[in-house]
Fold:
Amino acid sequence: MVTESVRDHTGGGHVEELLADGGATGSCGRDSDLTTLAEKVGKERFDAEFAKLIKGSDIAPRAPRQRCATAAKRLTKARARKLITALVGHD
Structure:
């Protein structure tokens, strides 16, 4: 089981988050890029590109109430780059 230590923005402490994918999360910069792009293009566009990207893989689709940033954290570095490229290409 892999955990990721992240800073708690409310109290300044640290919180450990369990990573279901064995630790294949991206860097903070890439995650913030995806979050920014998701807000810019909208959830529908993000969902469409995310679905195309994960088709045929073992990555689950974004849950109905799941934030785009949370779903993006499950992507490998290579898949996250592809998603960023797809979202930028459809600006």
